[in-house]
Design brief:
Length: about 170
């Protein structure tokens, strides 16, 4: 979600950096012993009446490079978004409930099975925590599952995992 704007912004900033560097070299503020597009533009400008095409080629190279960077960034964004759509489709098709929570336990999103299991729509589920008066977490044997043993809380501890954790949720009316 955040990657797409960062990729596009990076390409734009790289294009701006190329333009600024070329502009500084054009003004003669760089190392004249190093060939650059800005230096080539400066040479072309000096000889504009003798060989006007000398201005075209470095300008074209700068423009095409900036356009290519933007197109590459767009292609990368599209590829990443396609993978995210595929991943979301797989998660949504799962029969198991899948809930994504923040570090503080706040629910960000869930798949369709989780909505069905918990009996809550996406709007009603988002922003809640998995601990609260509306439901009770319990172990496989039916005993209460304390908040600090909840798999979502356990996995937040350094080096801890909650593999093969089985728990149940009893809704308020259940």
């Amino acid at each position: 979600v955040v990657r797409a704007p960062i990729i596009i912004q990076s390409a734009i900033i790289a294009g701006i950096a190329i333009a600024i560097q070329s502009g500084l070299e054009f003004l003669g503020l760089g190392d004249t012993s190093v060939p650059t597009w800005g230096g080539m533009l400066n040479d072309g400008f000096t000889n504009i009446y003798k060989a006007p095409l000398l201005m075209v080629w470095p300008s074209l190279a700068i423009a095409l490079t900036c356009i290519a960077l933007t197109l590459l960034a767009n292609a990368m964004r599209d590829a990443l978004q396609a993978r995210e759509v595929e991943y979301a489709a797989v998660v949504d098709a799962m029969t198991e409930g899948f809930v994504v929570q923040r570090g503080d336990g706040t629910i960000l999103t869930a798949n369709r099975a989780a909505h069905r299991i918990l009996g809550l729509t996406a709007d009603r589920l988002a922003g809640r925590t998995s601990h609260g008066p509306d439901w009770r977490a319990f172990r496989e044997d039916g005993s209460d599952l304390p908040e600090d043993e909840h798999p979502a809380v356990v996995t937040l501890r350094p080096g801890a995992s909650a593999e093969d954790a089985i728990m149940g949720i009893a809704r308020g009316a259940d």
